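Team,

Forwarding the record for the chain on the shared tracking sheet. I've put the sequence and predicted structure together so nobody has to dig through attachments.
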Amino acid sequence: MIPKIDHIGIAVESIDEARGFYEAMGLEVAGIEEVPREGVRVAMIPCGESKIELLEATTPDSPIADFIGRRGPGLHHLCLASTDVRAATGELRDAGYRVLREQPTRGAGGCWVQFVHPKSASGVLVELSEPPEPAESERRPIGESR
């Protein structure tokens, strides 16, 4: 059900400024995408089998703006790849863990995502992410805005 770490999300004030650090180490931004529903711009930086996701708020009331306002820029979440986010949501809920959404929603890259409350995961916000089926019409490549 969880084959790997998909990405590590880092809240930043500016993708344009933050990306320089990763590029100085030889990593490259694969694409930048806006997710209007979440009020966020994301830059995906491949790193081995996983990615680093830079998260920049696009609205003052977005979760990322709130996070940066309370804690400053930094590690925001750990994302685990899932083969079935809907099933994982039900299993976690049944086991007494708190998920943040009633049902999975679409995230960056058209993936189905669910978040687990930090109080249920040793203080870490955990995202579960399932890639869309290739034929799903909502799928957009990283870098193409919604």
